């Protein structure tokens, strides 16, 4: 319409005044049509669905990227890649806000800076967490994340199958193998003896290996699993892992070994599965799972995933770390069972692993804390909305 109008006006400049006067009614009609078109465009722009978040007083887009993405599609399990238009929709200020190193927990972040994940976000690893981790990987670091909802079993991951240097996180699997072969052997299977020097020593050694990450206790348990042979003990742990589907986990050296030929490895997916089996009573048997779960919940190192949790959440976790300079990699890992407050579901499992840090251990710790806070925020939003929808259905019925 605009092109027609411009053409007529241009023609008028070449015609006499009397000739142009005959076009007056036509021009007037075209101007009226253009005004009507503009009104229709404005009305269309005003139909963007919005949601009034009465808790925060913010007006939020009903679903992040809905207007840009078009019709809703059913997501596949796991990481959902943001589309190109979503990438363009994030401002430079927002990108900087989610990648800054200064970490604030949910309770410390001002309301105007909190980011909503939207009504139907595709898992906790969607933007902005994905962008935060990809920013670290752009520096040459290697990161992997695994998440599982303890209520419905839904899982999400980022590089979760990548085999990573485990540091002390692999001690979880040592504990599992000890319970499997020393405490709860299969029927007809010979019990591997620990050889206690006092009653309760085995439990004390396992507890110290997990809750304070004692390396000597870990090495002692591997030796005893092999009847005094470390290599045979490592093979027994490998058998335990294979039996339970922990396909990327292995023991290749003593803890704090000097110039080792191998290393200790696991994956975020394996560690997530281990903790899930533990929580649900499926690891060896229900009794063994409960005993190991109690040990994990007694963890004393809480500076990573637990440090990012809001008030009301509790956790049991196993960390793993290695600073630069020992020839054993540069690592910051954590894997946790996170229990939610009453009325918000059972909770979730979160594993965050980072290798090849180049000495940036402190930055990696802050990133894990920030990632934990983001996941807890996402979880809280989803459970709150599910509860609201359920209450609405009850009222309607």
Brief overview:
The protein is α+β, with helices and mostly antiparallel strands and 397 residues long.
Description:
With 397 residues, this protein is of the alpha+beta class. The protein has a domain at 129-396: 3-Layer(aba) Sandwich (Beta-lactamase). Helix content is 44%, strand content 13%. It has helices at residues 2-12, 17-21, 24-45, 66-69, 84-89, 92-99, 129-137, 171-183, 201-211, 215-225, 230-244, 268-279, 286-297, 361-396, and strands at residues 50-53, 58-61, 142-149, 155-158, 164-165, 265-266, 314-322, 331-339, 347-355. A five-stranded antiparallel sheet has the order 4-3-9-8-7, with helices on both faces. Strands 1-2 form a two-stranded antiparallel ribbon. The longest helix has 36 residues, at 361-396. The two termini are 52 Å apart. The model is unreliable at 1-31 and 36-121 (pLDDT under 50).
- What is the general shape? globular
- The structural class is alpha+beta
Tell me the major beta sheet.
5 strands, antiparallel
Report the CATH C-level class of one domain: Alpha Beta
CATH topology of one domain: Beta-lactamase
CATH homologous superfamily classification of one domain: DD-peptidase/beta-lactamase superfamily
Question: What's the tally of helices?
Answer: 14
Roughly how many Å apart are the termini? 52 Å
CATH architecture of one domain: 3-Layer(aba) Sandwich
Share in β-strands: 5-15%
Spell out the key features of this protein.
397 residues; alpha+beta; Beta-lactamase; 5-stranded antiparallel β-sheet; two-stranded antiparallel ribbon; 14 helices; 9 strands; globular; disordered N terminus
């Amino acid at each position: 319409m605009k092109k027609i109008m411009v053409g007529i006006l241009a023609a008028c400049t070449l015609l006499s005044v009397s000739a142009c006067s005959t076009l007056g009614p036509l021009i007037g009609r075209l101007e009226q049509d253009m005004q009507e078109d503009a009104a229709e465009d404005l009305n269309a722009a005003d139909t963007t669905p919005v949601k009034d978040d009465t808790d925060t007083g913010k007006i939020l887009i009903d679903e992040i990227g809905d207007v840009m993405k078009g019709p809703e599609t059913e997501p596949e399990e796991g990481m959902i890649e943001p589309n190109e238009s979503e990438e363009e929709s994030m401002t430079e200020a927002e990108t900087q806000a989610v990648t800054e190193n200064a970490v604030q927990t949910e309770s410390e972040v001002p309301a105007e800076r909190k980011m909503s994940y939207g009504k139907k976000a595709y898992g906790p690893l969607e933007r902005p967490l994905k962008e935060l981790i990809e920013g670290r990987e752009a520096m040459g670091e290697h990161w992997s994340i695994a998440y599982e909802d303890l209520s419905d079993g839904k899982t999400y991951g980022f590089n979760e199958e990548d085999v990573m240097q485990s540091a002390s996180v692999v001690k979880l699997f040592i504990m599992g193998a000890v319970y499997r072969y020393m405490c709860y052997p299969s029927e007809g299977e010979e019990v591997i003896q620990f050889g206690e020097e006092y009653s309760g020593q085995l439990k004390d050694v396992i507890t110290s290996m997990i809750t304070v990450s004692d390396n000597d206790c870990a090495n002692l348990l591997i030796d005893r699993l092999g009847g005094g042979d470390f290599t045979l003990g490592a093979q027994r742990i490998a058998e335990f892992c294979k039996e339970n589907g922990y396909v990327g986990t292995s023991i290749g050296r003593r803890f704090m070994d000097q110039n080792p030929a191998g290393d200790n490895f696991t994956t975020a997916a394996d560690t997530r599965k281990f903790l899930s089996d533990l929580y649900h009573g499926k690891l060896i048997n229900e009794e063994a799972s409960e005993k190991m779960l109690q040990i994990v919940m007694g963890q004393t190192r809480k500076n990573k995933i637990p440090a990012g949790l809001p008030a009301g959440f509790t956790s049991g976790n196993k960390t793993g770390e290695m600073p630069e300079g020992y020839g054993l990699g540069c690592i910051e890992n954590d894997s946790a069972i996170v229990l939610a407050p009453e009325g918000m579901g059972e909770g979730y499992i979160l594993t965050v692993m980072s290798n090849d840090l180049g000495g940036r251990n402190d930055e990696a710790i802050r990133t894990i804390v920030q990632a934990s806070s983001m996941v807890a925020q996402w979880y809280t939003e989803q459970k709150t909305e599910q509860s609201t929808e359920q209450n609405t259905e009850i009222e309607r019925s």
